[in-house]
Specification:
The structure holds 2 protein chains of 2 kinds.
Chain A: E1 2-7, E2 10-15, H1 22-29, E3 48-51, E4 54-57, E5 70-72, H2 85-92, H3 102-115, H4 121-127, H5 139-162
Parallel strand pairs in A: 1-5
Antiparallel strand pairs in A: 1-2, 3-4, 3-5
Helix pairs in contact in A: 2-5
Chain B: H1 18-22, E1 38-44, E2 50-56, H2 58-62, E3 68-71, E4 83-85, E5 90-92, H3 93-96, E6 105-106, E7 112-118, H4 121-128, E8 132-137, H5 144-148, E9 160-163, E10 166-171, E11 174-182, H6 185-191, E12 194-202, E13 214-219, E14 225-229, H7 234-245, E15 252-256, H8 272-282, E16 286-289, H9 292-298, E17 305-313, E18 319-331, H10 338-346, E19 353-362, H11 376-394, H12 398-405, H13 424-433, H14 435-438, E20 446-455, E21 462-468, E22 474-478, H15 486-498, E23 505-509, H16 526-553, E24 561-563, E25 566-569, E26 572-575, H17 576-581, E27 592-596, E28 604-614, E29 621-631, H18 638-657, E30 663-664, E31 667-668, E32 687-692, H19 714-726, H20 737-750
Parallel strand pairs in B: 1-16, 14-15, 18-19, 22-23, 29-32
Antiparallel strand pairs in B: 1-7, 2-6, 2-8, 3-7, 4-5, 9-10, 11-19, 12-17, 13-14, 13-16, 17-18, 20-28, 21-22, 21-27, 24-25, 25-26, 28-29, 30-31
Helix pairs in contact in B: 10-11, 11-19, 12-13, 15-16, 18-19
The chains are: A alpha+beta, B alpha+beta.
Chain lengths: 163, 761
């Protein structure tokens, strides 16, 4: 079946079999392998992408459901070579060890900050509970998300002052 | 090393490989896509124990989408029982192929029996349905006790119990019996004023790495093959593949991709041998990637255990005797970590009289593999809760009781290995003086628990190369898979020694064709042993750079002195970076090699301190506060050292409260992340860390391996906290709401009180 979708800012047209998940098409057909497969049944969150502003497990969505939708993957998180504040904060806070769950956490975190720009620690933990990390114990991930939120808040405040 | 003030060591630079990981650019094993690549799927046994009477692959072979089929007959038969090193444990050569493909008999559910290669995973999955296998089911051995009974069904008719006194006279599911004895244990107990004896049960658990096993293999016409895979040890995968295919190691090139977690579980080629057979048959690259249910059922989890511990102390708190029985579930082939469990349980304490018996027991469960401090967490649960109970009976503070009996440099481990520099007492002091230890507890049914842990840490051998660039930067080629920031710590050692910026060091993980032998990333050995290799390569580089600096400074080589990144002679000086940039003008390029080996032990001690609230009506344990302590020797990059403490603590929390394989007749009932419940961000609080730095005797900067000791104490600390919250001594892991509720209800019933919500079972 033919699918048209905006992926990381580019209008794409691709073919997908009805049985194929969005995760499979992203990885195997579009070669966007930054989105990871950890369980293929929605329990680990490694395949989290953003569809129309909402975080979704791409392993639980059929590729054909992406028709007409706007998709953002980890490959589209940075602006060119400029890292998103979340990516920068994850690096500074050592919020990754093996890095396999990291793309999913970053996309889930981005969706969280889109919804709640200044989350509490509890809100961060609640919104990231669908993403499993086995290396870090979550401590540094939670700190990184809160640091990025604070930086983004400060940047917004600065913009408002200069506007 | 006299130097204790550092320019780079102890700082927190951004890890050099981090950019590829936060942008999704780094390539993990399943991300490999090669021209003409085929996809393999593996047919797995639905029976935990059965004879394979017949495999009919004719329909599959005849199907147009199937390019090749693989069964056990495609592998050379191996009869050798030579022990093959697989990272943190070993396996008999004759049992190795069976972890990738069964032949004649299946001994655990999910064991591979056949595989196909097609142009897509979906086609391969369909094609598996065309393979017909006829089984004759055999009686299933589903737990340790059943396996040890005299009349138990035998899993291997040719297995005899190996012990110090030789081999047993008839076949048994007990693969080996290890024992340690010191002093006179019965006389010791006769001296004791207080004795505590308890029996513990812990369940099989999985390392839970988020990345499933994946390998892509391309067999070449010259008999060589290239393997792209996710592993903790490229050289260990190479040697196992060479054994499985009975070819020299030089025929196999293993390229380690980025690795999505391992924790001891990624030293074994489960899917690469299958992909190799299919690639040999088709001449194309073949990729095989596991699904999560396959990871649970067909890779190596951590052992279940039955442990009985008896310890005795005098009124003044002196431990006088200890006795232990440990039986560890090896799964379908021998090789559980019961040997290390026997050593590490009592080794933190001075115990004059002891007797320990350990049994390696086979069952119809997946063959176990190392899991972070292999064997340590179950025995830690047992010993550290018995210690807590002894302290309570003696009316002593649990830290004071441990302090009175704690080992010091010069004491010996249970296996007679002498401790050099260790920091157990410093860890205990740090716990006692930490504000968390004396903070008031608020609320109902709350309790605080503490427990300690120990891991001897590995040494092993590593090889590294340094090469140099015309802009003054340095390439660091290492063979240790980077599983959690080791490129950063190795680059920091180069920057420290050569006196250059860490951003000017480019670390790179090589493959087996491009660098000398390296032991794997396991046993907490990388920062220590690869660190030594890097340090030695740097010393070699400094000597060679001195000669080049002499040319540039126009002085005698012998007069050049080096410190803090500057070569000085005769009042003149030049920085390392400049000397490196001008190598081609001073004699041409060179490389420096560093090799480590034969290092002394650098053991690490840890402690967990936890506050819990227990809901007596549901049995749910909520963690309110957690502080993790460890002697790390010297933290090269403190953020990643803290990360090891935090990650180990949370894995230990999962082991303690929620994780277990639930078996029925050898079938795992919960092979998904939904039903095998690992901690989420919502289940745990911030994990505060205290890094204690007691320099190790050997190695640069006094560094110690830091990866494993952290997972030993968490379940015991939780059990001790639960006891203080609701008055029950938990002896079974995980301490799930049901088990805690039953214990609380049983206590209430025994005391004649009200039982919450029904009767205790």
């Amino acid at each position: 079946m033919k699918v048209q979708a905006k992926v990381n800012g580019i209008e794409l047209e691709f073919l997908a079999e009805p049985r194929q998940t969005l995760l499979e098409v992203l990885r195997e057909e579009l070669r966007l392998t930054g989105t990871k497969e950890g369980c293929s049944n929605g329990n680990c969150g490694a395949c989290t992408i953003i569809m129309n502003g909402r975080p979704v497990n791409s392993c639980l969505i059929l590729a054909v459901q992406a028709d007409g939708q706007e998709i953002q993957t980890i490959e589209g998180l940075a602006s060119g070579t400029a890292l998103h504040p979340l990516q920068q904060a994850f690096l500074e806070e050592a919020a990754l060890q093996c890095g396999f769950c990291t793309p999913g956490f970053l996309m889930a975190s981005k969706a969280l900050l889109g919804k709640i720009p200044e989350p509490t620690e509890d809100e961060v933990r609640h919104h990231l509970a669908g993403n499993l990390c086995r290396c870090t114990g979550y401590d540094k991930i939670v700190r990184a998300v809160m640091k990025a939120a604070e930086r983004m808040r400060a940047a917004r405040a600065e913009e408002e002052v200069s506007a | 090393m006299a130097k204790t003030e550092y320019r780079v060591i102890g700082t927190r630079p951004i890890r050099p490989d981090g950019y590829g990981k936060v942008t999704g650019r780094d390539q993990y094993a399943a991300d490999v896509i090669l021209p003409g690549m085929l996809y393999a799927k593996i047919l797995r046994s639905p029976h935990p124990h059965a004879i394979i009477k017949k495999i009919d692959v004719s329909k599959a072979l005849a199907h147009p989408s199937v390019l090749a089929v693989c069964t056990g007959e495609d592998f050379p038969h191996i009869s050798s029982s030579a022990k093959i090193d697989t990272g943190e444990e070993s396996i008999d050569a004759r049992h190795m192929t069976a972890l990738a493909m069964a032949a004649g008999k299946v001994v655990y559910k999910g064991q591979a029996v056949a595989a196909v290669a097609c142009a897509s995973f979906a086609e391969a999955e369909e094609a598996l349905k065309l393979i017909e296998v006829e089984y004759e089911p055999l009686p299933v051995v589903d737990d340790i006790e059943a396996a040890m009974r005299e009349d138990a069904p035998l899993i291997h008719g040719d297995m005899y119990t190996v012990s110090l006194s030789g081999s047993g006279s008839r076949p048994s599911n007990i693969a080996s019996h290890v024992s340690y004895e010191g002093g006179d244990v019965e006389a010791g107990f006769a001296e004791a004023d207080v004795i505590v004896e308890r029996e513990f049960r812990t369940r099989m658990v999985h390392q839970g790495y988020i990345e499933p096993q994946s390998a892509t293999v391309w067999a070449h016409p010259d008999g060589r093959m290239t393997v792209w895979t996710s592993t903790q040890g490229a050289w260990q995968i190479r040697s196992q593949m060479a054994t499985i295919f009975q070819v020299p190691v030089g025929r196999i090139r293993v390229i380690p991709m980025e690795i999505g977690g391992g924790f001891g579980g990624k030293f074994t080629p489960y899917v690469a041998p299958v992909a190799a057979v299919l690639s040999r048959k088709t001449g194309r690259p073949v990729k095989a990637t596991m699904k999560r249910s396959e990871v649970f059922q067909a890779t190596g989890p951590g052992s279940a255990a039955i442990i009985r511990v008896k310890m005795g102390a005098k009124k003044d708190g002196t431990l006088v005797a200890a006795k232990a029985f440990l039986a560890y579930d090896a799964g379908a082939f021998p090789g559980s970590p019961v040997g290390s469990a026997c050593v590490i349980g009592f080794s933190p304490y001075k115990i004059p009289n002891f007797k320990i018996d350990g049994y390696d027991v086979v069952t119809n469960h997946p063959r176990v593999k190392a899991y972070r401090a292999p064997g340590g967490t179950p025995v830690g649960m047992a010993v550290e809760t018995v210690i807590d109970e002894l302290a309570e009976r003696l009316g002593m503070d649990p830290i004071d009781f441990r302090m009175k009996n704690a080992v010091e440099p010069g004491d010996r481990m249970i296996n007679e290995v002498q401790y050099n520099s260790i920091g157990f007492k410093q860890v205990l002091e740090a716990v006692k003086s930490h504000p968390h230890y004396s903070a008031p507890l608020e609320g109902q049914h709350v309790g605080r628990g503490v427990a300690c842990g120990f891991w001897p840490n590995g040494g092993g051998t590593s090889t590294v190369h340094l090469s140099f660039n015309g802009d003054g930067t340095v390439n660091l080629i290492e063979g240790s898979t980077d599983i959690g920031g080791s490129r950063a710590s190795m680059a920091m050692i180069v920057a420290e020694e050569l006196g250059i910026d860490v951003e000017d060091v480019r670390p790179f993980v090589a493959d087996t064709d491009t660098l000398g032998y390296n032991d794997g990333t396991g046993g907490s050995r990388v920062t220590y042993s690869t660190g030594v290799a890097v340090y030695r390569a740097c010393q070699d580089a400094i000597q060679k750079l001195k000669a080049r600096a002499a040319v540039l400074l126009e002085v005698d080589e012998g007069s050049v002195e080096f410190s803090d990144g500057v070569f000085r002679a005769g009042g003149k000086e030049i920085r390392t970076k400049e000397v490196i940039a001008k190598l081609n003008k001073t004699g041409g390029p060179f490389e420096s090699v560093g090799v480590s080996g034969r290092l002394g032990r650098a053991p690490s001690f840890s402690a967990s301190l936890v506050d819990v609230a227990v809901d007596p009506e549901t049995g749910k344990v909520q963690i309110k506060r957690w502080t993790q302590f460890q002697d790390v020797g010297k933290a090269i990059h403190p953020s990643y050292a803290e990360g090891q403490l935090q990650g180990g603590a949370v894995q230990g929390i999962g082991w303690g409260l929620s994780e277990e394989y639930v078996f029925r007749d050898g079938h795992m009932l919960n092979p998904s992340f939904l039903d095998y419940r690992m901690p989420t961000a919502l289940d745990v609080p911030m994990i505060d860390t205290v890094l204690i730095e007691v320099p190790a005797s050997d190695g640069p900067y006094g560094v110690r391996g830091v990866g494993e000791a952290s997972i030993v104490p968490p379940p015991a600390a939780l059990a001790n906290a639960i006891y203080r919250a609701v008055g029950v001594r938990m002896t079974e892991l995980p301490m799930s709401p049901e088990r805690v509720w039953r214990a609380v209800a049983a206590k209430a019933a025994a005391e004649g009180g009200e039982v919450a919500h029904g009767k205790a079972g």
